[in-house]
Amino acid sequence: MSSAAAIGAGKAVCVTGASGYIASWLVKLLLARGYTVRATVRDTDDPKKTLHLHALDGAKDRLHLFKASLLEEGSFDAAIAGSECVFHTASPFYHNVKDPKAELLDPAVEGTLNVLRSCKKASIKRVVVTSSMAAVAYNEKPRTPDVVVDETWFSHPELCEKNQQWYVLSKTLAEDAAWKFSKDNGFEMVTINPAMVIGPLLQPTLNTSAEVILKLINGSSSTYPNFSFGWINVKDVALAHILAYEVPSANGRYCMVERVAHHSEILKIIHELYPNLPVPDKCADDGPFVPTYQVSKDKIRSLGLQLIPLETSIKETIESLKEKGFLSL
User: Fold this and answer.
1) Does 231 reside within a domain?
2) Residue 1 domain-assigned?
3) Which ranges carry the NAD-dependent epimerase/dehydratase domain (predicted)?
């Protein structure tokens, strides 16, 4: 066993929502470090959710899958019992929402509390929760090129509700509920707050953030949206979760943004890497470009993490979309 693989030898940890984009990488890296992984999925009989996990190095001996559902009280008990740390990544993320309460808000908030209650029963010492920059950056404060967003920022639920930003609201309320629960019940919690997560896909299905890149390159659109997002590589996000458990001094929230870039800049990078891809060259509206802003990297660097550059992340995403058959060139 390599020294990295020795770190987790003999230790069991739990990952919720293990078939997801970030979670699949988290399981892969945990197995590579020698951990035994107790992973939950909604349906253990669905090959789309499980085959790619069973195929990971070390999975045969050290990956155990459990069926659990966010809204089913106690369904995480079995997976969490006997774990030293729980990584809670399960939360729905998609856009065309018909019933925000049922589709996003309840699973995010109630699901998080459900998992934390199971952690309490099992006397788990440290829980690492996958939150989002959605829970950080949406408030009344301006976001312009000279502004630096950091871990002290919190999104305002009233504002999210007013603007019908249901996903943002779900992550804001879920993180808020989690902090309150961890304080009331005295266990250590760390949140990882990534922006748009891109990079290679392990799972066979298309996830929401990789689809953002796909829509820019598959010829389906003649214009690009007037948006500026933070971007981060999925491998960095997965590693940050692990370091948040392994580094004893890790605490509070960790914003994860390698760079905030407007869609026009993303397209410029894509065009330089792949001159033949049919990328749109016109913005969807005539207004001024939504400004970019900065996000502090001080705290995430304190875990010893050097972030993968945006250009590399874009290239890895496109190569992965090709390899998985989502993009025919």
Assistant:
1) yes
2) no
3) 13-250
Residue 6: inside a domain: no
Q: Report the alpha-carbon distance of residue 210 to residue 231 in Å, rounded.
A: 11
CATH number, position 130:
3.40.50.720
CA distance 266 to 221: 15
Q: Is the dihedral of CA 318, 323, 324, 327 positive or negative?
A: positive
Per the structure, how many domains does the chain have? 1
Domain residues for the domain of 61 are 12-324
Question: Rounded CA gap, 202 and 222, in Å?
Answer: 29
Q: Is residue 78 part of a domain?
A: yes
| Model pTM above 0.90 | yes
